């Protein structure tokens, strides 16, 4: 089956990429509990050290979100089925029920067993939780009030994506009216302007709020939209083959650039984490561009080819199907399991191996069960089972897994 035979809204490799990003984030957080931000020496430790860069799983998810949301628009006439009201209603049904279910469960547990340093946040989640924390989480404003994002660290990314939905229709209008180049330019200008504003006013006076964090993430959403247009819009039909070859070349160059950047700013301990995080404004767009280039390139690869077969394997597709739930609940589950390891063993590596053996299956099974109750029941449409023919309906706009807990403190 060629890519032309495969409908654009039934691309299994998107779920495969989503699963890999979710697993990267989960395993990265799992590593931090027993081992912290300390790199191990030797080439054999490289995979273990790579887990400390799990923040970039956020970038993958946000580019995927822009790609999936734009996919039906770029292949159609650019209009929303059900109008803007239907678009926002579908986004709310997709994101909010699982989010509020997670929040309610965490607060319920905290009522009986106060959690001191939940998700490694300095403030912690205690029985006398400040009202600002409660309302920040209830109103989904963790990206604007990051100082109160201490219920579940990764919640910030839900707030970030939720607020980016507000500008998505405007970005689509720019693309329809002026093309991909103008879209990329507009996204870059917006990212630069918001970042400059955030630098000038780290806390907005009177309301003690921040410019939505990270202020440059709009460019990642734009990269996803642009990738969908380049991969599937009829406007580029005559140059599609050239674009797909160019995407693979761009991906190769971006891998080299990102490798050089990470070599210059490696994560080896807590001070190096701070230096690396200070470069997020440059590194995140590079990671987003790499993801976008891979999406354009993969769209031209036949499902029978090894790379597509790997990304569209049954296991990865299934994990991609409940990756949002995995994102929401993995830290609470790992926190509880890590507490148990503290009672059993003292050596950090042994704790890591024990947490790995118990945490991975518990998180995967727990997330799958959670998704059955809170995602499929309330989502805008059910996800069909993985078919033999390597086709599946894409879940557009999957929220990104990870959060400020990817950063120290």
From TrEMBL:
Acyltransferase listed as a keyword: no
Pfam families to which the protein is assigned, alphabetical: Acyl_transf_3 (PF01757)
An annotated Gene Ontology molecular function: acyltransferase activity, transferring groups other than amino-acyl groups
Cellular component per GO, a single term: membrane
All copies of domain Acyltransferase, residue ranges: 12-367
Keyword set, alphabetical order: Membrane, Transmembrane, Transmembrane helix
Tree of life domain: Bacteria
Residues annotated as transmembrane: 12-33, 53-74, 95-116, 155-175, 182-204, 216-234, 246-265, 285-303, 324-345, 351-371
Residue ranges of the region described as Disordered: 385-409
GO BP terms: lipopolysaccharide biosynthetic process
Keyword rRNA processing (UniProt): no
PANTHER family reported in the protein's UniProt record: ACETYLTRANSFERASE, ACYL_TRANSF_3 DOMAIN-CONTAINING PROTEIN
Official protein name in the record: Peptidoglycan/LPS O-acetylase OafA/YrhL
